[in-house]
Amino acid sequence: MLRFFENLIDPYCDYPAEDRPPQRLFPFFMGYSKPFRGVFIATGVMSIIVAAIEVGLIYYMGRVVDLLEQGPQVVWDTYGAELIAVAVFIVFLRPILQGLDVALINNAIMPNFGTLIRWRAHRQVLRQSVGWFENDFAGRIANRIMQTPPAAGEVVFQTFDAISFSLAYLIGAAILLTNADPRLLIPLVIWFALYLALSRWALSRIGPASQAASDARSAVTGRVVDAYTNIHSVKMFAHHDREELYAKEAIEEARRTFQIEQRIFTVMDMCLVALNGLLIVGVVGWALALWMQGTASVGTVAAATALTLRLNSMTAWIMWALSAFFRQLGVVAEGMQTIAQPITLVDAPGAKPLELTDGRIELDGLSHHYGRGRGGLEDVTLTIPAGQKIGLVGRSGAGKSTLVKLLLRFYDAEQGRILIDGQDITHVTQDSLRRQIGMVQQDSALLHRSVRENILYGRPDADEAAIIAAAHEAQAHDFILDLQDPEGNEGYAARVGERGVKLSGGQRQRITLARVILKDAPILLLDEATSALDSEVEAAIQSTLYQMMEGKTVIAIAHRLSTIAQMDRILVLDEGRIVEDGDHDALLAQDGLYAQFWARQSGGFLNADEDDTP
Ligand SMILES: Nc1ncnc2c1ncn2[C@@H]1O[C@H](COP(=O)(O)OP(=O)(O)OP(=O)(O)O)[C@@H](O)[C@H]1O
Fold first, then answer.
1. Atom of ligand 1 nearest to the CA of 559
2. Cα(441) to centroid of ligand 1, in Å?
3. Which of 49, 301, 481, 535 has its CA 20 to 30 A from that of 593?
4. Residue 613 pLDDT > 50, yes or no?
5. CATH superfamily membership of 359-436+564-614
6. Which residue, by CA, sits nearest to atom 26 of ligand 1?
7. Over 80: is that where the pLDDT of 567 sits?
8. Prediction pTM value
C-alpha cells in the first residue's frame, strides 16, 4: 500500500529547464516543487484534520470528567453508545486518518522531494559553462548539490508536520477554551503574542546565521576536496602542514558560525520555558479560580489543564520545528548560490544544429581576455580552408589553448566571431558544434569508469570491434589488456581511477586518443596530443595521427616542433596575436620567431619559457 504513496510523484518527470531560475527563495522553491502541489494540499488538509482530532480528544476528556458526576449507572445507560462510538473511532478511524497523513509526508513527499531537487540541481549545474566551473571549487559545488535537497525536504516536512499541525491545534485550543469560558482565552492570547515576538526575534537571526554556517561548511568541503584531488602536489612539496592550516582556517570558521547559530537556540530555549510557565499558571490558575467561584466545572479545569500541558510540550517542539525550518531555509538559500545561478552560455533562441559541409573555419577579429583586459587572444583574424592542417606554436601563455577553447565554445569570445562553414558558432547548438570536433588535450583526464566506457565516450553506439580497432590505432590495446583494478576487473573493463590517475600520462593520452579516433569528427583539435608519449610510441602514433587527419580540418598545438613541421601551414602566436603565418620552409626563411624556436630546439623541444624574442 505504501508503494502507492511512493509512486504518487515521479521525481524525474519532465520540466522546462530554465536558463535563468528565480533568484528569490520563495519563487525558486515554488518552481521546483510544482509537481508536488496536489500532494502538498492533501497533506495540509490531513494535518488540519489530525490536529482537530487531537483537540477533540482533549475536549472529550473534559466532557467525560463532567459526565462522571452523574454516577456509573446513569453514565452507562445514557452515554454508553456514545462512549463505544468514540472508542471505535479512536481505535480504528483515528489510526487510519493519522496513517494517511504520515504516509503522505513520509512516503510521498520525503523520498521524492529531495530526489527531485538533487536531480534538477545536478542537471542545471551540468549545463553550466566550463568557465563557470573554473571559478569555483568542485567540492563546494558538490556539497551544495548534496546538502540542499535534504534541507529543502526538511523545510517541507516541518511545514506540514509541525507548523500546519500546531496552527490548527492552537485554533482548536482557542475554540475549546472559549467554549469553556471566554475569559480563559486571555492568558492564551497574551502568551501567543509573546510567543510570536520571541519567534520573530529568533527567526530573524536564525536564517542569516544558518546561511553563514552552511556557507562555511561548503567552504570546508571545497578546501578539503581541493587537497584530496591535488594530493600529488601536496605530497610532492611536503605541504601537509600548510594544507592542515588551510583546512583548519575553514573548519574554524565553520565552528565559529555554528557557535553563533547555537547561541540563538540556547537563548530561545530559555525564554520559551519561562513563557510556558506563564501559560500554565495563567490558564490553569485562572480555570481554578473560576471553579472556586463556581463558574467553571471540574471538566473545564481538567480540559484546560490537559490542553496547557499539551501546549507546553508542543511549544518546544514547534519552536524547534520553526527554527529547523528557518535553518534549513538558510541552507537552501546558500545552495541556491550554486543551483539557481543563471546559465550564461546558452544556445541562441531557435539555434539550429551546425551543418558541416567542408570544415572551413574563419576567425573574425577574435579577442578574449577572460574578463581581465589582457592575456588570452587579441584581435585574431584568420581563415582556415577546409581540410587544411594547421600547426599552432608560441610561447607558454601565448593564447594557443584559448583559441582552441573558443572554437569549442567553452567560452563566448569577448569580441569577434568564429564561423564554421559560414555559420556563426554562437548561432548553432553547442552539442552539434562539439559533436563535429574531436579534441585531444595536453592534460588528458579520464572519467573514473572502465576503459571501455572512457573510449565509448567518443561514440556511445560503437561496437566492441570498433573500440578495439580504435585502441589498436592509438597504440593502446596492448597495455589495456594488462590492466587490472583492485576490484579484479581486467582489460577494457578495468576502472582507471579518479581522473585516470592509475594510468601513466602516456597511457591516459593514448586512451583519449582512442576515443577521438572512435569519434571520427571532421574537425580535429590536438592540444599537445602526444606530449606525454615516449618517442617510440610517439613515432608510431604520429602515423596514426596523420591517417586520422586525412580529409579533416586540423589545428595542432605543439611545443615539439618536429611533430608539426610537416603541416600545411604554421601559425605563430605571441601575446595573443598571430605574428607569423606560412609553411615550415617559408617561416624558416622569414627568420623570425619560428626560426628562432626551431634553432633553439635540441631534439625537437621548444624551450617555451625562455625569452626568445628575436
Ligand atoms: N580560465 C582562464 N581564466 C583566466 N585566464 C586564463 C584562463 N585560461 C588561460 N588564461 C590566461 O590566458 C592566457 C593564455 O593562456 P593559454 O592557455 O591560451 O596559453 P597557451 O598558449 O595555450 O599556453 P601553454 O602553451 O602553456 O598551454 C594566459 O595568460 C593565461 O593565464
1. 25
2. 14
3. 535
4. no
5. P-loop containing nucleotide triphosphate hydrolases (3.40.50.300)
6. 396
7. yes
8. 0.77
CATH of domain 9-339: 1.20.1560.10
Among 195, 59, 34, 20, CA closest to 117: 34
Spatial contact of 126 and 431, defined as CB atoms under 8 Å apart: no
HSE at residue 195, side-chain half, CA atoms within 13 A, is: 24
Apex CA 168: angle with CA 164 and CA 170, to 5°? 115
| Model ipTM over 0.85 | yes
Residue 570: per-residue pLDDT: 94
Region 530-538 average pLDDT: 70
- C-alpha–C-alpha distance, residues 461 and 329, integer Å: 44
% of the chain exceeding 90 in pLDDT? 30
Which protein residues are within 6 Å of ligand 1, measured from CB? 134, 370, 375-376, 394, 396-402
pLDDT at 614 over 60: no
Examine domains 9-339 and 359-436+564-614 and report if their fold is the same. no
In terms of DSSP bridges, do strands 361-368 and 415-420 run parallel, antiparallel, or are they unpaired?
antiparallel
Nearest partner of 390 among 564, 573, 249, judged by Cα: 564
Amino acid sitting at position 608: A
Higher-pLDDT residue of 500 and 472 is 472
Residues 6+ apart with CB under 8 A from 302: 61, 62, 65
Best residue for ligand 1 mutational test, from 369, 401, 443, 612 (most atoms within 8 Å of Cβ): 401
What are the pLDDT digits (tens) for 268-284?
A: 888 888 888 888 888 88
Each domain of the chain, given as residue ranges in start order, spans: 9-339, 359-436+564-614
Gap between the Cα atoms of 291 and 280, Å rounded: 16
